[in-house]
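Handout, page 2. Input:
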Amino acid sequence: MSYTYTHRRRVRYRECDPMGVVYHTHYLDYFEVGRTEALRDAGVRYRDLESQGIIMPVVEAEVQYHGPAYYDDLLVVAVHFEQMPTVRVPIDYTVRRDEEDDTLVTGHTTLCFMDAEQRRPTQAPEAVREAFTTVLAT
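Output:
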């Protein structure tokens, strides 16, 4: 079982270097927007977690660059969850141009549920497990 969410976004001028190529660090921003929207689609909002005293820092990030994206490209960011979130949430990403099969970037992040006050890892809240039980089953 797995859950994949697809997010589309257009490359902005400010995200490019002088050659018109997306600057490499912006892909981490694309990953963040994609996973935030994926979690929202699954029924989990960061804002709600934070109001419950739970934060989700990134504890691991890796990016592999396969080809360039350019100013004004419409990108598709596929966000892929392979398993039920526990204390850690591993997430894979694939970025390509809309309507094209060529993969531009792949990546992976691992987030961790943490008690915001104690700054200690904690289990995924029940609401998160319930939401993922639903989306992983489809």
